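Lecture notes, part 5. Sequence design as translation. It can be helpful to think of inverse folding as translation between two languages: the language of shapes and the language of residues. The source text, in structure tokens, appears below.
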């Protein structure tokens, strides 16, 4: 579904007031849908699947900033390393090392976020608090990545109190490292929970269905 101009404009003005960056999540959406949002002025787009991203990137305008927001397998990093703008879901030391290696091959420094496991679901990915500490302290040896901050996904639940607790927890971790590691990005919030995320300090939201309509419609 081509994004509705009014919905987009309203969302953008709401986010701009709070200085929050919008990543428009275009996974499973056709080129025309992305082009429509691009025409409204949107430049940051998020994709979850490497193959889908590498098919879309060459046929869309070169000044789109592509965010990889899904679970990334180490053996696929090489396909997105030449152009990816920000990788949100770094969830292991092995993956961080591989991004560093592929970034070096492309003579670039790739900006990344470390994903923290904040939800109750076991199926979601991310570092726990101790692993985060460990990854951050070891990362100084990796010269081709720049860790810009943290990313997290709250539990899929109607219990707003639970979601608030999880976002609050991620914000407290972000605050622990913001000065020592010069963090600038806290990526949390999707269509269903972005308002709560912003209340808890998010400055980057990843929004799909609110803009493009539901994915399995
Ligand atoms: C799909 C996805 C989103 C967007 O979800 P919506 O509910 O459609 O806004 C955000 N973040 C991640 C990591 C996703 O996989």
């Amino acid at each position: 579904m081509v994004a509705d101009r009014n919905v987009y404009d309203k969302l953008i003005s709401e986010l701009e007031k709070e200085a929050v960056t919008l990543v428009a999540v275009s996974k499973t959406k056709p080129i025309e849908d992305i082009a429509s949002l691009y025409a409204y002025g949107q430049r940051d787009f998020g994709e979850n699947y490497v193959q889908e991203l590498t098919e879309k990137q060459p046929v869309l305008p070169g000044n789109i900033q592509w965010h990889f927001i899904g679970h990334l397998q180490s053996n696929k990093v090489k396909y997105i390393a030449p152009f990816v703008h920000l990788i949100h879901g770094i969830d292991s030391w092995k993956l961080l090392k591989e991004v560093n290696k592929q970034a070096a091959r492309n003579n670039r420094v790739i900006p990344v976020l470390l994903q923290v496991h904040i939800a109750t679901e076991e199926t979601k990915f991310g570092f726990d608090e101790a692993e985060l500490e460990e990854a951050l302290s070891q990362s100084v040896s990796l010269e081709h990545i720049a860790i810009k901050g943290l990313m997290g996904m709250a539990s899929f639940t109607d219990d707003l109190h639970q979601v608030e607790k999880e976002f609050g927890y991620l914000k407290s971790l972000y605050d622990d490292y913001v000065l020592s590691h010069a963090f600038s990005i806290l990526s949390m919030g999707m269509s269903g929970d972005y308002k709560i995320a912003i209340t808890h300090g998010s400055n980057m939201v990843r929004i799909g269905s609110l803009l493009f309509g539901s994915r399995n419609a």
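The translated text above is only one of many valid answers, since several sequences can fold into similar shapes. Residues 25, 27, 48, 69-70, 153, 190-192, 206-210 surround pyridoxal-5'-phosphate (CB under 6 Å).
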